[in-house]
Amino acid sequence: MPFRVTDSATNARLTSQIATSRQRFAKVQEQLASGKRINRPSDDPVGAGDVLRLRTKQTELAQFSRNVDVTRETLQVGDNVLDSYQQLLDDARALMTRAATDPVVLEARVPIAIELEGIISRVQQLANTKSGDAYVFGGTRLDAPPYDANGVPAATPTTETTIQVEPEGTLIATGVTAESFLDDGTGTLIDALKTAATAIRGTGTWATDHATILGTVDRLKGFSELSNQARTKLGERLNHADEISARLSQYNLSIEESAQRIETVDVAEAAIALKESDTALNAILQAASQFGRRSLLDFIG
Fold first, then answer.
1. Mean pLDDT value of segment 21-32
2. CB atoms within 10 A of CB 96
3. In angstroms, how far apart are the furthest CA atoms of the chain?
4. pTM to 2 decimal places
5. 134-135 and 171-173 as β-strands: parallel, antiparallel, unpaired?
């Protein structure tokens, strides 16, 4: 028995072919307009999954980059503060040296003591410097500044804070603690300067006061060395942060290139595909139009 394709079946097939061709044509048009081969997961489920994983990795890298930026800012603030701190040490040394060599006249020493007390106040301010909401030299101690208003050091123990700055878990210290350069193991600089200021004002025995002043001058050498060591640490960590920042940028660029290779359309190939889709669509439309013009004799066969 001969098989005859009905008009409705032929019409349905042509309609389906037209719809498919138009979808293909529209897809290529969209690719050329967006510059992307993958505009939605259905375009390439596997490729879309790969791009999603790469973009997720980029989001993680962006957070690490922000961590590095915050760390660099804090380290730089710390270095600037220590530069000012070193100047205060030099000024204090000069004042005490002058007090130790000036005539033993109280009136001549009081102005020096007043200047030294101003330096003490400034040292306290520098020790409690903040970057954002955090104390630059507070370390892991978050609930109190390194020194209170009276120059008394915080009782809460502290250590240097660290932050993760690379995917593999690299940690970097965000600064140094105030204790690392303001305490020489026998006491704090603030206490030493207060004792020296009292001696400069006079306690009644110049020989004793004189020895106290000279002893404090000697101790300042040690505090100066502690300051230099702290600045060396900050400098090394700044360099490390710069290196990490460069690595993160390079890693992000590599990921971006991989993602682009997957999702970016090849313009030349897409142009050819657009032309082919257009030709195929026109051919189907032409066939459909001819089907609609058949005569009665075509049906009688």
1. 59
2. 25
3. 136
4. 0.77
5. unpaired
